[in-house]
Amino acid sequence: MTEKRYLKWYNKVGYGSGDIAGNVVYALLSSFVMIYLTDTIGMSAGIVGTLIAVSKIFDGITDIFFGAMIDKTKSRFGKARPWMLYGYIGCAITLIAIFAIPISMGDFAQYAWFFISYTLLNSVFYTANNIAYSALTALVTKNSKERVQMGSYRFIFAFATSLLIQSVTLKFVSLMGGGAGGWRTVAIIYAIIGLIVNTISTFSVKELSDEELSEGEHTKEEEQKYGIIEAFKLLIQNKYYMMICGTYILQQIYGAMINVGVYYMTYVLFNENMYGVFSWFINIPLIIALLFTPMLVHKWKGMYKLNKYSYMLATLGRLLVVVAGYYGSVPLMLAFTALAAFGQGPWQGDMNAVIASCSEYTWLTKHKRVDGTMYSCTSLGVKIGGGLGTAIAGWLLEWSGYNGSLSVQPESCINMLHFMYLWIPFILNLVITIILSRMNVEQANDKLKAKIKTTES
Question: Residue 176 domain-assigned?
Answer without folding.
Answer: yes
